UniProtKB/TrEMBL annotation:
<keyword id="KW-1003">Cell membrane</keyword>
<feature type="domain" description="Leucine-rich repeat-containing N-terminal plant-type">
    <location>
        <begin position="38"/>
        <end position="75"/>
    </location>
</feature>
<dbReference type="InterPro" id="IPR046956">
    <property type="entry name" value="RLP23-like"/>
</dbReference>
<dbReference type="InterPro" id="IPR055414">
    <property type="entry name" value="LRR_R13L4/SHOC2-like"/>
</dbReference>
<keyword id="KW-0433">Leucine-rich repeat</keyword>
<protein>
    <submittedName>
        <fullName>Leucine-rich repeat protein</fullName>
    </submittedName>
</protein>
<dbReference type="InterPro" id="IPR003591">
    <property type="entry name" value="Leu-rich_rpt_typical-subtyp"/>
</dbReference>
<keyword id="KW-0472">Membrane</keyword>
<dbReference type="GO" id="GO:0006952">
    <property type="term" value="P:defense response"/>
</dbReference>
<dbReference type="GO" id="GO:0005886">
    <property type="term" value="C:plasma membrane"/>
</dbReference>
<dbReference type="InterPro" id="IPR001611">
    <property type="entry name" value="Leu-rich_rpt"/>
</dbReference>
<keyword id="KW-0812">Transmembrane</keyword>
<keyword id="KW-1133">Transmembrane helix</keyword>
<comment type="similarity">
    <text>Belongs to the RLP family.</text>
</comment>
<dbReference type="Pfam" id="PF08263">
    <property type="entry name" value="LRRNT_2"/>
</dbReference>
<feature type="signal peptide">
    <location>
        <begin position="1"/>
        <end position="25"/>
    </location>
</feature>
<feature type="domain" description="Disease resistance R13L4/SHOC-2-like LRR">
    <location>
        <begin position="238"/>
        <end position="393"/>
    </location>
</feature>
Length: 822
């Protein structure tokens, strides 16, 4: 078979030859030089960039092969530049640092890039072209397939041509200040149908309607679009029916816009859809049944909308669904096990804050899923503790607050939920639960992993057991509004990770834990409305305290407020009201640096928006609910309802970041500190029911944010200073004193200059009087400046006193007129 042999050896030769040729050409390719005019174009492009960190050092004429330049890739056949990867630093944690800033290119994009006819990928993301718009010439880059200008601080409109390029598949313009898409006029827009990915999230489309912005996209006969991201861009309008035409769509991100109206039924046509994220809009109406046809869907987020009606049963067919988030909507009706029938992949189920009722018909329903996150707060689930949870052994977030459960906590609880990290079962009835068994059962004495535990409002009673060494990861513990008694267990007070402890409104008694103010972790402590006795613990001062909120209101604490309390220099809210504290007020409150503005505002914890921390505390304080707009940065000092005596220390007026001060119902004496007007952002001031005397300092009229004032039932005298604020309060803010002038009906006696102004703070009762006061001050100052040198000359003396007498009389006339008005 010689022909066979021949053909075989021929094949061998051929193979060797092609291999040889291949390796030759490969070597040739590595030496390929870039094309001269492309190099020139790149250098020109570099010229217009401000390159503070000299990242483009390799881009120079002595380094001829531009294919080896930083960020440049060439086509290995033609030597033409095909890719440009020049992203700036994208580390979000250090985004605004000067180091990152200098790494970013600034300047403008030179149109010389148009000469790179093979350029298919441009990535200039995370650079800073602030106040520039996207140049329209980019649309003439005929080979461009992918353009990434995310995080570039670009403004203006997206050029129409860019959306309609034919070649362009991926357009990423997220996180800019773009305000819209240029209208194409009467030119054809069919090429928009070639786009595969658009990301315009985090721009500023200022209420433009989604349909208007993307009409031509939705009209595509066969769209190739796989990913549409328009989150947080200020889009309004409804979700168009024609969205269903985007048959290749896999990712839909339209969260955090102003979208309204229902989800169209056509959504069911998006059979490739993997993820649909529409949270934080005003989407309303019922969910379409067609949702059940999204057979590829893995992630569905419709949270924080106004969706009503019932949860369609078809949702149970989404076998691939791993994440379902429908929390904070207006869904009603009954959910049964059918709704979960085929949700075999489900891992995260967030559905809290709807009006749904869970009814499982069989007593041994075993859900087809294994959840890690389950949040059904405010559903109607009880009265029995849901038994079907027994097989959910992977759960690490379990939220069943306010679900009408009135039951024992099952004994399999810690067996099943050994991975639990976050537990909120507050607002239920667990009056039959033994706190000892639940927290300290001998049988499962192993370490708990729990970080957050909320058992507030659950009718728990009994003495808290002392076994908290098993809970070493506990960060946030909330037992508010229960009937727990006994002392605070030592092991609880010593927990090294505990940051927030809320025992508000229980029956706890005994002395406060000694180390309460020395913890290296505690930031929030609310022990208000209990029966604690004894003195305030004394901070040792070894470490700077990080306590931010301390409320011991309504207990039976006695003794002095120790000066050492001023070591709590991070304190934002200090509430010692309604105890039996006595002695004088410490005069070192000006050490509270969060209240004196000595710390960065950033370090002041936004207590209100912190789900786990202060919001519960703030909600319980009904009387400050009117302040929701500023709750976040609340600073608050309340020592009212004690037995404190002595003067109000003037240091308190250095708390210029304080918003609320309450010293009422003590036995404080002396004057209101003169510099109270320095507390510029004070919104609420209560000094009532003390024994303060003297006048109301005139500086108080500069407290322009004051919207609550009470100085009633003291011994104050004189005229109430005038300001738009002070005169707007009711009589009741001032009664029980010897005050006069508006807003009180009582006219001040008109007695010359010294009226109501024993300390020279010029009482006044209207805007005119402020003017007069300043005239008067000018008068007095001018008087002595001029008069002193004149005393020697008798002639000049008489002359001047004549003039001065005339001025004085004008003043007297004014004053008479004013008195007759009031
Ligand atoms: C590269 O290839 C060209 C022709 O394609 C050839 O003339 C040249 O000699 C090759 N250079 C090297 C270094 O192999
Ligand atoms: C040009 O680029 C090369 C390669 O990065 C570099 O070594 C050289 O210092 C550069 N020359 C100039 C003048 O910047
Ligand atoms: C040439 O480029 C193509 C596509 O960029 C790549 O797949 C191929 O491996 C490259 N060839 C060589 C020899 O580098
Ligand atoms: C971008 O540059 C502008 C001024 O040119 C500057 O104000 C801004 O902070 C810069 N942004 C970033 C993220 O570096
Ligand atoms: C493109 O290249 C041509 C010739 O190579 C040159 O005349 C022209 O100025 C270049 N255009 C730009 C925008 O650099
Ligand atoms: C667009 O329409 C106007 C008149 O409506 C016409 O004058 C113009 O030529 C058209 N432009 C194109 C590109 O068709
Ligand atoms: C679009 O950009 C946003 C913001 O950076 C990002 O979170 C999102 O994942 C992007 N979308 C896609 C589909 O890549
Ligand atoms: C797109 O959707 C709309 C509404 O669903 C429909 O009227 C239109 O015919 C569709 N267009 C195409 C090209 O399929
Ligand atoms: C849903 O809300 C709309 C108004 O937004 C109302 O007309 C409709 O009756 C509601 N449907 C249900 C089932 O409550
Ligand atoms: C669940 O899936 C099975 C098998 O795919 C199917 O027979 C059944 O009808 C599905 N049930 C529901 C409620 O969709
Ligand atoms: C008010 O002051 C008068 C004397 O100035 C004093 O006799 C009286 O006891 C004071 N009242 C209160 C409540 O302190
Ligand atoms: C003020 O006094 C007058 C007359 O004494 C009385 O008619 C009026 O009701 C009083 N106003 C207030 C607010 O007390």
């Amino acid at each position: 078979m010689s022909s066979h042999t021949f053909s075989f050896s021929y094949l061998c030769v051929l193979t060797i030859f092609t291999f040889f040729q291949y390796s030759l050409s490969a070597e040739n390719q590595t030496n390929i030089q870039c094309i001269g005019y492309e190099r020139t174009a790149l250098l020109e492009f570099k010229n217009d960039l401000v390159d503070g960190a000299n990242r483009l050092v390799s881009w120079n004429s002595s380094n001829e092969d531009c294919c080896k330049w930083y960020g440049i890739t060439c086509n290995n056949q033609t030597g033409q530049v095909s890719e440009m990867h020049l992203p700036g630093p994208d580390d979000m944690a250090n985004f605004d640092t000067p180091e990152a800033s200098i790494q970013r290119f600034r300047g403008t994009l030179n149109p010389s890039l148009q000469n790179l006819s093979s350029l298919s990928i441009i990535d200039l993301s995370y650079n800073n072209f602030s106040s520039n718009s996207i140049p329209s010439w980019i649309a003439s880059l005929k080979s461009l397939v992918s353009l990434n200008l995310a995080f570039c601080e670009l403004s203006g409109l997206v050029p129409a041509g860019l959306m309609n390029m034919g070649s362009l598949a991926t357009l990423d313009l997220n996180n800019n200040q773009l305000t819209g898409i240029e209208t194409a006029g009467n030119s054809s827009t069919e090429n928009i149908c070639n786009l595969v990915e658009i990301n315009l999230s985090w721009n500023k489309f200022d209420k433009k309607s989604l349909l208007e912005v993307l009409t031509s996209l939705f009209e595509c006969e066969s769209s190739k679009l796989e990913s549409l991201s328009f989150a947080s861009s200020g889009l309004s309008g409804s979700i168009p029916e024609s969205l269903g035409n985007l048959s290749s769509l896999q990712t839909l991100e339209l969260g955090n816009n102003l979208l309204s109206g229902p989800i169209p039924d056509s959504i069911g046509r998006l059979s490739s859809l993997l993820s649909m994220n529409l949270p934080d809009n005003s989407i309303s109406g019922p969910l379409p049944d067609s949702l059940g046809r999204l057979s590829s869907l893995e992630e569905l987020d419709l949270s924080n909308n106004e969706i009503n009606g019932s949860l369609p049963r078809s949702i149970g067919q989404l076998t691939k669904l791993t994440t379902l988030n429908i929390e904070h909507n207006l869904l009603t009706g009954v959910v049964t096990e059918d709704h979960f029938a085929n949700l075999t992949s489900l891992v995260t189920l967030r559905a809290e804050a709807n009006m749904l009722t869970l009814e499982v018909s069989t007593d041994n329903w075993e859900p087809p899923f294994q959840l890690t996150i389950l949040s059904l707060n405010r559903w109607n689930i009880g009265p029995k503790f849901p038994f079907w949870l027994q097989n959910q052994k992977n759960i690490f977030i379990l939220y069943l607050a306010s679900t009408g459960i009135s039951d024992n906590i099952p004994d399999w609880f810690w067996d099943t939920f050994s991975s639990l990290r976050y537990l909120n079962i507050s607002d239920n009835n667990f009056s039959s639960v033994s706190v000892n068994d639940f927290f300290c059962s001998e049988t499962d004495a192993e370490q708990k992993q729990v970080i957050y535990m909320n058992l507030g409002n659950t009718n728990l009673s009994g003495v808290l057991p002392d076994c908290w060494t098993n809970w070493e990861f506990l960060n946030i513990l909330n037992f508010q509004n229960n009937n727990l008694s006994g002392k605070i267990p030592k092991t609880l007070a010593n927990l090294s990770s505990l940051e927030s402890l809320d025992m508000h409104n229980n029956k706890l008694s005994g002395q406060l834990p000694e180390n309460l103010m020395n913890s290296k972790s505690l930031q929030i402590v609310d022990l208000s409305e209990n029966e604690f006795t004894g003195g305030l613990p004394i901070p040792s001062g070894e470490n700077a305290s990080i306590l931010k909120l301390l409320s011991l209101r309504l207990n039976k604490l006695t003794g002095k407020i120790p000066n050492e309390i001023c070591r709590l220099d991070s304190i934002q809210i200090l509430d010692l009201a309604d105890n039996n504290l006595s002695g004088i007020m410490p005069n070192c409150f000006n050490n509270f640096s969060a209240m004196t503005g000595k710390v960065d505002k950033d370090q002041i914890v936004d207590l209100a928006s912190n789900e786990f921390m202060g919001s519960a505390w703030l909600q319980t304080k009904g009387r400050i609910n009117g302040y929701s707009s500023i709750l976040g940065l609340l600073t608050f000092l309340d020592i009212s309802g004690n037995n404190l005596s002595g003067l109000i220390p003037s240091e308190i007026t250095q708390l210029v970041e304080l918003r609320m001060l309450n010293l009422s119902s003590n036995r404080l004496t002396g004057n209101i500190p003169e510099k109270i007007g320095n507390m510029a952002i004070l919104e609420s001031l209560d000094l009532s029911s003390n024994q303060l005397d003297g006048t109301i300092p005139s500086t108080m009229s500069s407290l322009s944010f004051l919207n609550w004032l009470n100085v009633s039932y003291n011994n104050l005298t004189g005229r109430i200073p005038s300001s738009t604020q002070l005169q707007s309060f009711q009589d009741s803010s001032f009664i029980g004193n010897k005050l006069c002038g508006p807003p009180l009906n009582l006219t001040c006696r008109a007695v010359g200059v010294s009226d109501g102004g024993e300390k020279g703070n010029g009482g006044s009762d209207g805007p005119d009087w402020g003017l007069i006061a300043s005239i008067l001050i000018g008068f007095v100052v001018g008087f002595w400046v001029i008069v002193a040198p004149l005393i020697s000359s008798k002639l000049w003396r008489t002359k001047y006193f004549e003039i001065l007498y005339k001025v004085w009389c004008k003043f007297c006339d004014l004053k008479k007129k004013k008195s007759s008005f009031t």
